[in-house]
Amino acid sequence: MEPSISINNLSLSFGSLDVLKDLNLDVGQGEFLVLLGSSGCGKSTLLNCIAGLLDVTGGQIFIGGRNVTWEEPSQRGIGMVFQSYALYPQMTVAGNLSFGLKNAGLPKAEIQERVNRAAKVLQIEPLLNRKPAALSGGQRQRAAIGRALVRDADVFLFDEPLSNLDAKLRADLRVEIKQLHQKLSNTMIYVTHDQIEAMTLADRIAIMRGGQILQLASPNEIYNRPANKYVAEFIGSPT
Ligand code: ADP
Ligand code: MG
């Protein structure tokens, strides 16, 4: 499988705190990769490096074969969804979805078409004229996903997009995200600390700890053949 994203010897420090340590990771074209690890292990930092929101301390990041390590975020062809919805409160859902496209100078008709397509996929068409305050948590998160979708990106980065939602909604949206991926077949890196989410969504899971990847394998393999005791306990394998 042609790697869509290659991360080579990536390191990142905040002052004297080494958060990512010589990290290597290849993500295949169209793969749904889940980064799983407990709070503070560096998951968000890694996503932010891939998105170009943080400058790396060392190493390289390739997307689609191109070295993007020092490219601006907007040049990288990425759509990102954060844990907090980060919608603009003063704009309608339609305004939120089209904002980045207007800034990028896309023609009006093209913007309209992309917004309508994303709204249809996410079933938020009736909500396009509402402001975020008038939406439920799940509707807001769909709108946030919509904002990433309209970018028509090859790569999506999701940072714990469901962790602020209640259990029922989380389960529902999990299914929707999986279906969305099957429909779009884009490359996905999805960060979570939730083992069940990882097991149900992932083609492969990367278990992360202390800024490094301990094991990268299918959910089945990780469950049945955990690389070490930490992975076994974290994933809840039978011992
Ligand atoms: P995760 O997303 O896995 O919970 P993070 O990537 O957010 O972990 O954080 C990894 C480590 O880096 C933590 O120890 C966190 O406190 C630290 N950290 C994150 N962002 C910053 C920052 N801007 N400045 C200093 N330390 C940070
Ligand atoms: Mg995080």
TrEMBL record:
Residues 5-235 form the ABC transporter domain. It is a peripheral membrane protein. GO terms for biological process: carbohydrate transport. GO terms for molecular function: ABC-type transporter activity; ATP binding; ATP hydrolysis activity. Keywords: ATP-binding, Hydrolase, Nucleotide-binding, Transport. Its EC number is 3.6.3.19. It is found in: Cell inner membrane. The keyword ATP-binding applies. GO terms for cellular component: ATP-binding cassette (ABC) transporter complex, substrate-binding subunit-containing. Its main location: membrane. Belongs to the ABC transporter superfamily. This is Maltose/maltodextrin import ATP-binding protein MalK. It comes from Roseibium aggregatum. The lineage of its organism: Bacteria, Pseudomonadati, Pseudomonadota, Alphaproteobacteria, Hyphomicrobiales. The chain holds residues 1 to 239 of 363 of the full protein.
